[in-house]
Every structure is written in C-alpha cells, then in structure tokens.
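RECORD TYPE: inverse folding
INPUT: structure tokens
STRUCTURE:
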C-alpha cells in the first residue's frame, strides 16, 4: 500500500513566527525549532499526500509498517511483521477465483491514543470504512477497496483479506489509523469528511495522535507546536518542545537559520540544493551539512486533457529541448542526476538500458514539425489553423531551484518556437487545489517522493484520476490514460518472482520513456543542515521521513 507523495515549496508571512520560539528553552536545547519550506495543506493522514505533511505527522503518528533508513520494511504499530514464512500471511482464493492473501497483524498492546484510549481493532475497522468509501477523498482509495474483509480476533489482532497477493503484501504503510472514538461522527457524511474531520476542526485534540509527540498549537501557514505525548509507549523523547515553522522562501529560511530563528533545516522539505551548497561554503562552522540522494523525482506533469499535450510527439520534443544534464551541472554542481524515468538508479529494479533523452534541439524541432507545429517567419510555431503554440508552466512559489528551472525550461521551449508563460502559486493552493483537482491548464512542475520499489499505481493508473465523482481522491493529476500501462502496473504488483518482476519493471520503464506521462528532470539530492549539537537524525532517502524516529534525536554539548 505504499504511495507516492507530492513534494513542493511556496511563500509565507514571517512576522508571527517569532511568537513560537522560547529563547531560554532553546538556549538549553530543551526546545528544537525546525524550519521547513511548506505548510501542510491538512492534517488527516489519509487525505492529500504531501511530503510536508508526512514530515510533520512523523512526530505524532505511527503507521503499522514503514521502510526504515536502511530501506528495510519494519513494524512500528504492529508487534511482528507478517510473512509467509512465519505463517501470518496465507495465500487464499478470492470469490472470483483469483489469488489473494490473508494477513494477520497484532497491534502493540501498550499502544494508546494521546487521550489514553487504547488503539484497537475498532480503529482498524473505522479506518477501513473511511478508506474504501469513494466519497471520502482518500488518496489511495483503491488499496482500501482491495481489502475484501477484515476479521477481528480480539481488541488487538485482526486478519486482513486482500484480493490480490502482491510482492509487498505485508507493507500496509498507508493504512494509517484514525481514531474511531473521536472521528466517527465526522464521517456521518463521507463527502464532507475531509473538511469535518477533527484533524481539521480540532487539531490539538490529544486523542488524534499516538506518536512520541502531540500537536498543542497550530497557526495555519505559520507554525506548529509539539509537546511530548504522555501516553507514548516507546522511548521517551528528548526535547520538551518542538516547533516546526513554515518559511517558504529559500532566502528567508536561510536567514532564520543564521539568526537562530530555527535550529535545523531538514532535507525532506527544507532548503534547495543550490542554497545548501552555498550555505555550506559560507557558514559551515557550527553546522553539519549532509547531502542525501534519494527517491525524490523532480518532473513536469502535462495535462492530458489538453489536446496539444496529448500528442506524445510534442511531449518528446519538449523533453529533447531541455538541456537537463547541463542545467544539473550548472545549478547543482553535479549532485543531482538527470532522470530517464521515475525509477531511480538507486533502486534495484532500474534498467540502465532504458531510452534516454539527451539535449537535441534539432530532433525536438523535427518532432514538432511532424506534429503539425510549424515555425513561422516570426520564430513562433503555429498549427495548420494558425493557432500559436502557447504553453503555461506552473509550480510552487518561492523555491529558488524551481523558479530557476522554470526559467531554463521557458527559454529552452521558446527557442523551439513555443510561447511559454509562468504562473506560480503558494504551495498549499498549488497542491491543495490546482494539482489535487487536475486544474492546471498545461504543465505543473513538482516532485514525487517514493518508497523503495514502489509501483506508481496511484499516479499512473487511469482509475486514479481525480474527479468530482471521487471527491478528488485520486493521485493521477495528469489525467493520463493508457490501458497497457494499467495492465503492466497490475502485473508488476502481483509478480512474486523477483527475476520475472525485473523483466516487468524493464517493460514499465520502456513504456514510460516512450509515452512520457511526465517529463523527467532529475533525482534530487537533499541537504540536511543540522547544528553540531543535534544527534540522532538519520536521513532515509525515501518518502518515509526521519521524524518517524524523532525519539532518538537528542542534544549533546
């Protein structure tokens, strides 16, 4: 059930942020203040996937399973990972004669919500009810609907029956519990649940949280305050108070770090790589800067409802027209690798022989000619009806890397004869409305953050296109439809043989490189900027953030 998360940045007001800091506590390192470049669009763990939200929720919630920093699947809320070998995962035949699986999990008996209510199978059943309802607006609703039944043994043990036996059958990372005893009333009308959930209307309610910390104060768009959860069952967290500030403009984020307004900037959702490199060269004393390459995929998403962009010759031409290797070297000092598809070379299933798109403006021009977009005497391209090739590129405002990338892309495409305008939005608007609702007219520039060997069903399967009918619950914001891709994604998921699955992954990468459902730019390497006194922070390089191990963070010296 692993999903991809959107990654982006924007601009926020800074005036009210100072009120979140407590100088005496920070001086003693009892408070940790974290600067991030984006404020979460909401707090419900099931709705609207964003890296900023995942980072924040890592302090206050624990999933059943996750991938640890060594990319190994581990239990967090469960007592033991179910496997075929230990008998807690058993193949079974579904009602329609297909191969399914029954998986038995046991909730840690000591686990409680922050109000003292034990976490139980009541929460499991309620979460399943929310997740499978097509009106709830849950991102990965199909994964919940693939669960055909849940048998409850007792308050802590349940068996989940899934209608397909996938290679990652025991990874229920996205089955993130919501508390039945608190949020059930808000689900009386599923279509309005995303707005009526207590995660939005009563965010500081301690019963919503089950991690080492709980949220005690929220200033929307500005900061979030966390304090230790007295009901937490694990290792006692070190910091008496954590403040996460949203400072969405890169220069302001750096200024806050230098002035002491924040103590650290995480790589998951913090400073851009070029800014991190510059910071290290100017201000390294007192800080440790670590660059973590990972599964964050920067790309440009075309809107497939636009007939211009539905022609793959146009998409291929536009990718050939961008000097991605030169840009990566110039801006990122070679620390970010141009992407061929969304499969990272760090992942075992990467195919090094996949089709490449080197910078080739002559080939790009020929493809545009073939697609019917001819260059006129004025240098602009028009179709047979005289319509000019006008394109709009959108991204999150305030991120220096993205804004520079936009300009590079704009100039490259204008050299090909397209007229390109730029229109940016604050991250919470861009992701919470424009991308979420498949509402950008031409192109959207942002990143997807993935788990290891993550099948991109949620963002490429035609059933996952966000629409009014599914309450904008899908992640395929491009509107990409390809029946062959749908079949291939299905085939990869259920192939248990690693060798055979590698062959399917190769086919996927070949199809992606030919069809270009997204224009791949590069795989990111993210700078973690930490004070020398902060220990225990371990970057993961994938979509599950370092904050899932916040209880191991500590101050020394």
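DESIGNED SEQUENCE:
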């Amino acid at each position: 059930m692993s999903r991809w998360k959107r990654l982006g940045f924007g601009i926020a007001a800074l005036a009210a942020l100072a009120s979140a800091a407590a100088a005496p506590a920070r001086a003693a390192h009892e408070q940790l203040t974290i600067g991030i470049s984006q404020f979460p669009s909401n707090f419900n763990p099931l709705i609207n996937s964003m890296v900023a939200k995942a980072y924040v929720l890592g302090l206050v919630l624990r999933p059943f399973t996750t991938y640890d920093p060594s990319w190994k699947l581990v239990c967090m809320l469960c007592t033991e990972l179910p496997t075929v070998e230990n008998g807690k995962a058993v193949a079974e035949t579904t009602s329609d004669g297909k191969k399914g699986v029954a998986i038995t999990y046991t909730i840690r008996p000591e686990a409680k919500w922050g109000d003292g209510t034990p976490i139980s199978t009541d929460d499991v059943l309620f979460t399943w009810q929310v997740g499978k309802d097509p009106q709830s607006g849950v991102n990965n609703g199909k994964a919940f609907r693939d669960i055909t039944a849940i048998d409850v043994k007792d308050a802590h043990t349940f068996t989940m029956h899934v209608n397909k036996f996938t290679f990652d059958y025991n990874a229920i990372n996205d089955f993130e519990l919501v508390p039945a005893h608190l949020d059930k009333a808000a689900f009386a009308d599923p279509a309005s649940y995303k707005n009526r959930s207590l995660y939005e209307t009563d965010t500081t309610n301690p019963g919503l949280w089950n991690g080492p910390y709980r949220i005690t104060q929220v200033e929307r768009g500005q900061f979030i305050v966390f304090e230790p959860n007295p009901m937490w069952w694990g290792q006692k967290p070190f910091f008496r108070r954590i403040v996460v500030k949203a400072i969405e403009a890169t220069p302001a984020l750096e200024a806050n770090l230098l002035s002491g307004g924040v103590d650290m900037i995480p790589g998951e959702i913090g400073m851009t790589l070029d800014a991190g490199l510059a910071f290290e060269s100017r201000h390294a004393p007192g800080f440790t800067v670590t660059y973590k390459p990972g599964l964050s995929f920067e790309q440009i998403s075309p809107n497939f409802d636009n007939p211009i962009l539905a022609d793959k010759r146009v998409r291929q031409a536009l990718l050939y027209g961008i000097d991605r290797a030169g840009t990566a070297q110039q801006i990122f000092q070679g620390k970010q690798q141009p992407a061929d598809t969304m499969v990272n070379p760090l992942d075992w299933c990467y195919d090094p022989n996949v089709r490449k798109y080197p910078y080739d403006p002559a080939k790009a021009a020929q493809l545009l000619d073939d697609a019917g977009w001819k260059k006129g005497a004025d240098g602009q391209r028009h179709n047979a009806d005289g319509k000019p090739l006008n394109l709009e590129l959108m991204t999150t405002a305030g991120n220096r890397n993205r804004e520079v990338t936009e300009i590079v892309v704009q100039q490259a495409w204008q050299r090909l004869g397209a007229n390109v305008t730029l229109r940016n939005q604050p991250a919470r608007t861009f992701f919470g409305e424009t991308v979420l609702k498949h509402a950008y007219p031409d192109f959207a520039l942002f990143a997807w953050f993935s788990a290891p060997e993550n099948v991109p069903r949620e963002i490429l399967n035609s059933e996952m296109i966000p629409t009014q009918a599914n309450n904008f619950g899908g992640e395929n914001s491009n509107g990409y439809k390809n029946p062959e891709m749908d079949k291939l994604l299905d085939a990869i998921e259920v192939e248990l043989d690693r060798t055979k699955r590698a062959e399917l992954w190769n086919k996927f990468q070949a199809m992606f490189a030919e069809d270009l459902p997204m224009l791949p730019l590069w795989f990111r390497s993210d700078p973690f900027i930490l004070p020398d006194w902060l220990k225990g922070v371990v970057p993961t390089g994938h979509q599950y953030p370092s904050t899932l191990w916040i209880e191991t963070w500590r101050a020394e010296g």
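NOTES: Residues 65-184 form a domain with the Dipeptide-binding Protein; domain 1 fold (CATH 3.90.76.10).
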